[in-house]
TrEMBL record, chain B:
Keywords: Signal, Transport. The keyword Nucleotidyltransferase does not apply. GO terms for cellular component: ATP-binding cassette (ABC) transporter complex, substrate-binding subunit-containing. One of its GO terms (biological process) is maltose transport. Gene3D superfamilies: Periplasmic binding protein-like II (3.40.190.10). Belongs to the bacterial solute-binding protein 1 family. It holds the Pfam family SBP_bac_1. Residues 1-19 form the signal peptide. One of its GO terms (molecular function) is maltose binding. The keyword Amino-acid biosynthesis does not apply. This is Maltose or maltodextrin ABC transporter,substrate binding periplasmic protein MalE.
Amino acid sequence: MAVDTPSQSVAKAAGDGVTRGRSRGTGDNGGAVRRSLSTHWYAWAMVAPVVAVLGVIIGYPLVRGVYLSFTDANERNVARSIGVNEIPATYEFVGLDNYVDAVTGSQFLATLGWTVLWTVSCVAVTFGLGLALANVLNRRIAGRSLYRMLLILPWAVPGFVSVFAWRFLYDERRGMLNQILSGVGMDGIPWLNDPTWAKFSVIAVNVWLGIPFMMVALLGGLQSIPGELYEAAEMDGASAWQRFRHITMPGLRSVSTTVILLSTIWTFNMFPVIFLLTRGGPGEATQILVTQAYKFSFEISPRDFAQSSTWGVLILVLLMVFAAFYRRVLRKQGEVW
Amino acid sequence: MRRGIAATALVAALGVTLAACGSDSGSGGGSKGSGELSGTVTWWDTSTVGSEDKVFKKVAEDFKKKHPKVTVKYVNVPFGEAQNKFKNAAQSGSGAPDVIRSEVAWTPEFADLGYLAPLDGTPALKDADDFLKQASASTQYKGKTYAVPQVIDSMGIFYNKKIFKEAGVEVPKTIAELKTVSATIKQKTGKTGLYLRGDDPYWFLSFLYGEGGDLVDAEKKSITIDNPAGVKALATVKDLVDSKAAITDATNGWDNMQASFKDGKVAMMINGPWAVADTFAGKEFADKANLGIAPVPAGSAGQGAPQGGHNLAVYAGSKNLDASYAFAEYMTSAETQTTIAKELSLLPTRQSVYIKPDVATNELITFFKPVVEKSVERPWIPEGGSLFEPVKVEYTKVLTGQTTPEAGAKAIGDSYRKLLKDWK
């Protein structure tokens, strides 16, 4: 990619920040920076390599992606030099056209709808099952550590291995699930060949993969709730449900808000499950925003870098809005974040 | 002091990571002065894994016998991924092969993007007059030659003679006959008639051509997929699935098709010469005589099968162009094509090979030769490789009942209009 980087605009943006800072009329901004540098120079020196690495690995692609989303860059018009063939870049700046196309087009909205449905159902089911299992494993039952080990297994197996295993299980004609069904005299189910079943199937696999994390996190939360509270509640004659409702739930609040936020963001961008199980099919039935953005950039031809970047930026914006909104709701409930 | 060491180590580590990102796995060499070729040639083959690839690997590595100082690195890339994989590698300039087996529709596209080395006047095009006209057509782009034809193919209907005998049916010649034959097979043997490949648009082409339709008309620069013929073709395949004359899958189609046919679960499939070697490996075809091949069933407008095939193209950024030209020439020479035809029943692209004794008597080749001659040529335009993705999505949507044939055809047409700017 021998395209000129938009370094000027970055520099300008940084400059803007500085002028904006000064125009606020505090005037001691520079002084504050200098003071903090002189007292904490050691800390700054320690942080610098990390900042540099993040800048190279995350910052540059991010800036470049945002830049590309304002152009009409695709495979045919970006610069490339291949052996004897030198081809200059010919893509142009198109302003907000890509965003207008995405937000007004049916494809983005339809994909967004399914992505939200997929995220909500995955997180809800995973959280519910994870909480139930954590509660079961929090008691003294025989073979508790063995169960814990087994339940963490999906987490220990590399994701793509599990997904491929599931793909074999789901196969309509040779898969184990349908063979079991035909064994008990039922018709096979078109797990991945029918749009509705395919949606169900990908959610099931993602839940299966996501439970261990939820369970371990919630189990940690449960173990941090003091036992005396339960004893006291029992003395006062609280039922099991009341104990769960008024001790366990509030005690888990800080853990569960965090895992729900994390798991929402992960599920929203859960690329491997969709990509390896159905490739977004049948048709485009299970395509989520991330896999569709990948498809624009790597699967269709000519590969459409601009549209792909646009979708990427929109995903980022959506998740940032969600996180900010989530924090605000929590703050209203008196959570400290 | 310790701090200094840590910082240095960090910087050094950073430097290493960054350097590793930008490194280029070049394959130096060439023919410097002495006239003898040396170095490495990496070849991406896309042939069927488990049957064809073994033969191609051996033939490719035998190149060493002719040029002892050249090492051929054989890599098999699954056909379905090769187009995008090559484009990614070719553009970034790292990890691209020296020579790629390029499907005929990909060749003009790669050439247009500047990824291929022009071959006119290089050793790669030895005895070019010997190539079939049909095979050479896709290697030409803007007056230059960008690839060497390796194999040519078309499609036919593969059927299991044993099941046909059991059901007492004849090979269907039309789609209507295909439905009645399938019904009889189901009734007499309980097996399904046809496996229809539903996840690859290439398998839809023979139905489309059979209705007299086409994806685009390159001469008139018009988009024809959403004509009544295109709609009818989509309706036809949907009807085959809905009436249980055929089964299909939305994913994993190739493996499921081959497995169902090789295990005798379905009686027919539409396929090409590239599937022959793999099919013979199935238990139903231990006796090779059990496999019958016939022309694809005709639609309302007659019979039509797509002309396909593969070329060998040289990557423009190859570090070892001379050896790559020689390798492309070797893989497409009359001698190599004879070996491939004998071992795999693939159709040669050189006229002189068809009259070789073992090739002239090969049943599959003698069957497919006239089929190829009658087959429908696709437009060799740079966008040729881009025409399939929209069809793939809508074709699968129609088969799984997510959209109607009319809406599906219209959606394909709309995406073509975006792709081909000034076409009607």
